[in-house]
Amino acid sequence: MLALGACSTSHDNLTASSTSDNTAESGATTDSVDTVPAPTAATIDDTDSGWVHTEVGAVIYLAFVADLTGKVTGSMSVALTSDSGTAIDAGTHTLSGTVDDTTIALTFSSTTWTGTITADVLTMNVQHRDGTIGQARWQRGSIDDYNAAVAVLQTGANVATATSIANAEAAATASSLDAAAAQESNRIDKIYRNVVYDIQALDAAVRALPGALAAVDTAVAGVRTAANDPILTSGDCGDSDYQLSNVSYEVSNVEYAISGVDYVTQPIPATIADLQQQVNALTPVAQTDSQVDALDAAPGAITDAYAALSAANKADTKSKSTADAIYSQAAQAEGAHCAGGASTPVATTPGFTVPDFTVPDITDPPGGD
């Protein structure tokens, strides 16, 4: 491109600066000028026709006349595509110069171009943006020709504008989609983590239950041992009364051990309900193998938890009723002994062992430690 610099609509605002090498593609050339008769002053004194130069991103229109002394006056109209390619910058400049035979010099804004002129072709030596000097060619043309060329520039600018807007909208849409995808991914991941957490909670309860039940079994055995102490039915009544209080104390140990079972199993129903809700939410949107594995592990964890809950409830009821029954018989025996009547051996009370309960083994859920 010719070194014309930035353009504006204000007069004489265009200055010489830098150019590109596009002139050869669109009208500027380094070819030699055809030899034609030299123009006379009357030949270039034509206000109805000027000179049009087009190249990529620029259109330049020169209109000038020369008097008989060779003095040139006129104007230069320039239309340039903006750096963004989405707008047209235009400006008009005053020209002055000289013509002598086929040699011509034109000056605008303190910049002078020199070259040759024939009846149909104007060839000027101009500076390109890279600092090199080359030739640019103008053809005879009218204001209409200039306007038509500017219209082509404007069409390109309009296309560039539309493309820029479309690209911006596409980028905004892509960004919005990315944000929505990230939000959805976070939502799914949160559900997945809830599933894993609930599975781990149920697994922990199931694994803790045998220990809690063993404590109940030990407590019930303590009630039986205290009730079968000979002092209860053969010793001094004061001692036997004291021993009965020991039986009562052991019964309270059973109740305490049962509370331990309840502590382990109490969260199970709510955890199962939450896990089922999370599974329902994750099922249609599971994306990864880990998420699918968590869904696969959930039913087994729920089944094991229900089994543990059932066993705990049975053990609670049976152990409490058995401990109370042993105490009741111990109290009757101690009362009969101290009343002087025939004592009933406590050893004949029904034996009781907490039902064996084996916790079903479940695989550690995905994401578990």
Describe this structure in words.
The chain has 369 residues and is α+β, with helices and mostly antiparallel strands. Helices cover 52% and strands 18% of the residues. It contains seven helices and eight strands; from the N terminus they run ααββββββββααααα. The protein has helices at 23-26, 41-44, 143-227, 231-234, 237-265, 268-282, 289-338; strands at residues 50-55, 58-66, 71-81, 88-100, 103-108, 111-117, 121-127, 133-141. It has an eight-stranded antiparallel β-barrel. β6 (111-117) and β7 (121-127) form a beta hairpin. The protein is rod-shaped and about 160 Å long.
Brief digest:
With 369 residues, this protein is an alpha+beta fold. 52% of the residues lie in helices and 18% in strands. It has 7 helices and 8 strands; from the N terminus they run ααββββββββααααα.
What distinguishing features does this structure have?
52% helix, alpha+beta, 18% strand, rod-shaped, 369 residues
